[in-house]
Amino acid sequence: MIQNGNLSAGSYLTAVRIDWVGDVNGIIILLPLVLILRAGETGKTSEIRSQIGLIALQTAALGSVFLITFRNAWGISDPANQSPFYWLFLPIIWIALRWGAGATAVALAALQIGIVAVVAKHNTPESFLAIQVFMIVLAGTGWFLGISASENARINVLMHSKDDELSGLKARMSRIGADFRNRSRAQ
Questions:
Q1: For the segment 61-75, what is each residue's pLDDT rounded down to a tens digit?
Q2: Taking burial as the number of CB atoms within 10 A of a residue's CB, which of 111, 152, 174, 185 is the most buried?
Q3: Using CA atoms, how far apart are residues 100 and 43, in angstroms rounded to an integer?
């Protein structure tokens, strides 16, 4: 775009800072959410229904940490002017390791919507850029752990089904061996 004259060299970094970070963040947050909601995770619906109390606790934890982290958006001033962004890792890691990729997608999307709806209007573009870059790091961490937990659960289910299959084969082989011994003795 710079070579074609559509973008001046001086405005390149500004364009990357304003457009690219927001676009990457939107893709990282929304694309997996759409894919997971469309395909779903097998066996999660009944587990979610049975664990509604834990889900409420995790939602409250995420909301509380959000309120503490972005307290300046609520009119509560911070004398040191520092937000403890790293606290947001705790509920995201908890959700990712407990529920896997699907719930991580919902939690990250809710957090991103909260940031855009509430926090963006109370920050300067530079501080909002820092928040968006932080969200990319948080989403990467959440996705890595959520996908790892989902794959671990999928592999455990597969291993249990193979164990059951092998147990059935073992019993069948024992019967075949016993039949063969009985026929050998009869001759």
A1: 888 888 777 776 666
A2: 111
A3: 12
